[in-house]
Design goal:
Uracil-DNA Glycosylase, subunit E, five-stranded mixed β-sheet, 9 helices, 5 strands, binds iron/sulfur cluster
């Protein structure tokens, strides 16, 4: 049974309730994992992804599959240092299952994103990160509003007191990185990430 308090004073109690959340299943959406998130109070950098994949759902740990290996290669190849540096969450936190058409994973619906926004809003309030990496168009739009990847990769934005830096999704499902100009945008974004990480 999903429990959401009117307010939270610690990330530990928020995470305890989040890890038991079944709000989307209770609303009738098919989910194929329990919530996936990892982080602790005191981390100053956060990664917001789109949704966990099948591997993450099984391990209940973010960024464990192929996309995760690519992202860690971009940011912090050392696995331990990656999880030590970044508080890792996503717009929706349960593996949504395969797409009915058989290609890739089912995209979470706007209603599921709305149900899950509660957890991210509270995390931002309690963690107060200095740097937020938005991985993929869905995470970018959730926190920055309508934006095209081509326009925002390589730029940094204010997100409350934090700096937000958009990144493309590393899954390889999109052809966006096939273009040389987009790979240059990614290189600029990663340079910004290194600069901001040095400051936090
Ligand atoms: S996706 Fe988010 S809101 Fe939906 S059940 Fe999972 S944790 Fe809860």
């Amino acid at each position: 049974m999903t429990r959401r308090r009117a307010s939270y004073r610690s990330l530990a109690s928020l995470q305890r309730d989040n890890r038991a959340c079944r709000a989307c299943a209770e609303a009738g959406f098919p989910l194929e994992s329990l919530p996936v998130l990892e982080g602790r109070a005191g981390q100053r950098a956060m990664i917001v992804g789109q949704a966990p994949g099948v591997v993450e759902g099984e391990e209940r740990r973010p960024w464990r599959g192929r996309a995760g290996r690519t992202l860690r290669g971009w940011l912090e190849p050392d696995e331990e240092a990656f999880y030590e540096t970044f508080y890792c969450v996503s717009v929706t936190r349960c593996y949504p299952g395969r797409h009915a058409a058989g290609r890739g994973d089912r995209p979470a619906t706007p209603a599921e994103m709305e149900l899950c926004a509660f957890w991210l809003d509270w995390e931002l309030r309690l963690l107060r990160p200095r740097l937020v990496l938005l991985v993929g168009g869905l995470a970018v739009r959730r926190l920055l509003g309508p934006a095209r990847l081509t326009e925002c990769i390589g730029a940094r934005y204010a997100l409350g007191d934090a700096v937000a830096i958009p990144l493309p999704h590393p899954s390889g499902a999109s052809a966006w990185l096939n273009e040389a100009a987009n790979r240059e945008r990614l290189a600029r974004a990663l340079a910004l990430v290194r600069e901001e990480l040095a400051a936090v």
